[in-house]
Design brief:
Layout (H helix, E strand, L loop, with lengths): L1 E2 L3 E5 L20 E2 L6 E6 L4 E12 L1 E9 L8 E7 L10 E6 L10 E9 L5 E13 L24
Antiparallel strand pairs: 1-10, 2-4, 3-10, 4-9, 5-8, 5-10, 6-7, 6-9
Length: 163
């Protein structure tokens, strides 16, 4: 089992001071923040690889209900439930909710994308400081072939060049 390379592809709220990329930078002092309404969503990609997810670690603050969904498609569509979690409220003296979740190998297999949905929070705002995904890479990303012979025709192919 190894740490999987992930990237944040989209968030439903944005603050330039706390971008979504902070969730996967490995630094728990940086974070992504919701903007005051729920639900909020985060779309994660695995660098064009297909993975088997076995463990998810989160460092967050103020998250009450978290839903994790997975897509096995080449585009982020047709998500299926992986985890539904109710996180305990942490006292002010404990700044971060540190959680580790085991993922069943049946629902964690052949994943290309994850969607994290913060359904509700303990406060008006919630933050995610770090996400760590563990598992195995099933298939590495394929490098695009430079050959146009095998490429599907595009709308640009029908345009005649000017003389």
């Amino acid at each position: 089992m190894s740490q999987l390379k992930a990237e944040v592809l989209m968030t439903t709220s944005n603050d330039n001071r706390q971008p979504g990329s902070h969730m996967v930078d490995g630094d728990t002092s940086s974070f992504w923040s919701t903007t005051g309404m729920y639900p909020q969503e985060v779309l994660i990609g695995f660098k064009d690889a297909t993975v088997t997810l076995t463990k998810l670690k989160t460092w967050s603050h103020g998250v009450r209900k978290l839903v994790v969904q997975a897509s096995c498609e080449t585009q982020p569509i047709n998500f299926k439930a992986v985890l539904e979690l109710e996180l305990a409220e942490k006292p002010v003296s404990t700044p971060l909710q540190q959680e580790t979740f085991q993922v069943n190998s049946t629902v964690g297999a052949s994943i290309r994308f994850l969607k994290l949905i913060i359904q509700s929070g303990w406060e008006d705002f919630a933050t995610i400081h770090n996400l760590v995904f563990e598992g195995e890479v099933e298939a590495e990303p394929q490098a695009p072939t430079p050959s146009k012979a095998n490429a599907a025709p595009s709308a640009l192919d029908a345009i005649e060049p000017r003389s």
